[in-house]
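Q: How do we represent a protein-ligand complex in a form that can be generated token by token?
A: Start from the inputs.
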Amino acid sequence: MAIMAVQHSPVLARESLRLLKVRPGGTYVDCTVGLGGHAELILEQLQGKGELIGLDRDRAALTLAEAHLRSRFSNFRLFHRNFKELPQLLTELEINGFDGCLADLGLSSFQLDDSQRGFSFRFAGPLDMRMDRSCGVTAGELVNTLPEDELVDLFRRYGEEKMARRIAAAIADRRRSAPITDTVDLATIVEGVKGRRRGTRIHPATQVFQALRIRVNDELSGLETFFKAAVDLTSKGGRLAAISFHSLEDRIVKNCFRLAAGKCICFKPAGLCRCDRIQRVRILTPKPVVPNEDEVRENPRARSAKLRAVEKL
Ligand SMILES: C[S@@+](CC[C@H](N)C(=O)[O-])C[C@H]1O[C@@H](n2cnc3c(N)ncnc32)[C@H](O)[C@@H]1O
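Then emit the structure tokens for the protein with S-adenosylmethionine bound:
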């Protein structure tokens, strides 16, 4: 397990660290520590001065990250918390704000590659999908209990799945005879409806799995509130960076940053626009930073990553 932590290569590492512009002596927050890849780079740049506060809702990942980082650094503290609780956590720690904050959203390879976590259709495993296994409902519970119409809505809303109605019908049909408990079982039902498109490596169940995962972990709700609070907590000249892995998430990050930069996000005529148009940040990435071909070749999961960053005025 420890080897996994050491081998882990964080997505868009060089670019995210360049944008964070870590200053030795500053206070930094890594909202999604995972196996500690980005955290390690931030700590290196802190040069033993200042502090890193790290959060993750996955206790198993935090345990690995703690062991790995502790072997090299002492100026960090890790917390098993949802980053949406960051303002409360900082109040508890009597920290007024920070000089930089990184949110590398979504799942880690550590989570995806563990069949027992149920995130991937590539391995048979229980339909769990909870990042925080100490609470919440599992994907299996949703698949087996949600009314068919709610499944349709879920697959459309969070998976942008065009065949949502037919997939939900196939699930409802199947669960009348036996519950769906296994990742491969669910993937096979979806594939039975959608078939496999020639010339694409994307599995037909990708969007359904994405939708379930987002709902199980309540990934999108509260993100706007979080980014607004994070902008408030960033000190003058400090930086906020976010890496997202799907368009729903990236849209939220983009709009939050635009709004904080005093730009309109409703695109209504001036008289009808209700955006607050108060500039509190400068956008550092007019276009999102994406991985180059070499990174995608080495780490295919990086292919959909988009990095955006702002600087507090
Ligand atoms: C892409 S990984 C981060 C990888 C990390 N940057 C690294 O270099 O190892 C995303 C991590 O964010 C965590 N996560 C996702 N949503 C979270 C939330 N709302 N609060 C806290 N952690 C979250 C996941 O459990 C996962 O470990």
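Residues 1-6 have pLDDT under 50 and may be disordered. Residues 29 and 101 are 5 Å apart (CA to CA).
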